[in-house]
């Protein structure tokens, strides 16, 4: 069964990050990973394949070498996303990890698995009191929806998300943006003065 896309609100994102915590190194790693997914719209596989050498926070750029379909691209990251990522990159280095190692590692130095995050995000969502499905792709949906609400051009969103076709991005956003339909119907009712 395929579930509809659910976009998280800013309040829900903040609650999710608060539930994540920052006390242990794994909390800080998870916090940085969640912020990265939210502020860049990366696919989970793309985020987990990153290495510190792929991240240029001075430019606000992240190089995705293993995108969908084997395509590489560069995505942007803003200051809100860069700050916790910078803290994690510093801690990653203090743990003795090199710039060529996976960025999001386990205690043994292996890359965090997709399965781990697929279990962890719903757990954090419950702890945060979020009653929507909380999953990595939902953070991608949230990023795309926020960009569109901020008036970012669809062609730029396509490049950020790594879609091969602009039509894919249009269809993607159409599923995420019911507000435009709701607003149009609401305006119609107001224009009729029926109530």
Give your account of this protein's structure.
This protein is mostly helical. The protein has a single domain (10-192), classed as Intergrase catalytic core (hpI Integrase, Chain A, Orthogonal Bundle). It is built from nine helices and three strands, in the order H-H-H-E-E-E-H-H-H-H-H-H. The protein has a three-stranded antiparallel β-sheet with strand order 1-2-3. Helix 2 (25-40) runs antiparallel to helix 4 (79-94), helix 2 (25-40) packs across helix 6 (136-149) and helix 7 crosses helix 8 (166-176). The mean pLDDT is 88.
Strand order of the largest sheet: 1-2-3
Largest sheet: 3 strands, antiparallel
Radius of gyration: 18 Å
Shape: globular
Number of helices: 9
Question: What name goes with the CATH superfamily?
Answer: Intergrase catalytic core
Low-confidence parts:
none
Domains counted in the coordinates: how many? Answer: 1
Please identify the structural class as seen in this structure. Answer: mainly alpha
CATH architecture: Orthogonal Bundle
């Amino acid at each position: 069964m395929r579930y509809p896309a659910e976009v998280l609100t800013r309040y829900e994102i903040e609650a999710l990050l608060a539930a994540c915590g920052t006390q242990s190194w794994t909390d800080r790693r998870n916090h940085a990973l969640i912020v990265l997914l939210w502020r860049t719209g990366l696919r989970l596989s793309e985020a987990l394949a990153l290495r510190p050498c792929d991240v240029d926070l001075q430019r606000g750029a992240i190089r995705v070498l293993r995108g969908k379909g084997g395509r590489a691209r560069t995505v942007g990251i803003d200051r809100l996303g860069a700050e916790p990522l910078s803290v994690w990159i510093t801690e990653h280095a203090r743990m003795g990890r090199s710039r060529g190692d996976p960025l999001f590692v386990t205690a043994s130095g292996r890359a965090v698995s997709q399965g781990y995050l697929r279990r962890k995000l719903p757990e954090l969502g419950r702890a945060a009191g979020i009653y929507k499905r909380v999953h990595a792709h939902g953070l991608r949906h949230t990023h795309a929806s926020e960009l569109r609400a901020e008036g970012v051009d669809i062609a730029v969103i396509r490049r950020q998300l790594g879609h091969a076709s602009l039509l894919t991005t249009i269809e993607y956003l159409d599923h995420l943006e019911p507000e435009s339909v709701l607003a149009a119907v609401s305006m119609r009712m107001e224009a009729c003065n029926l109530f």
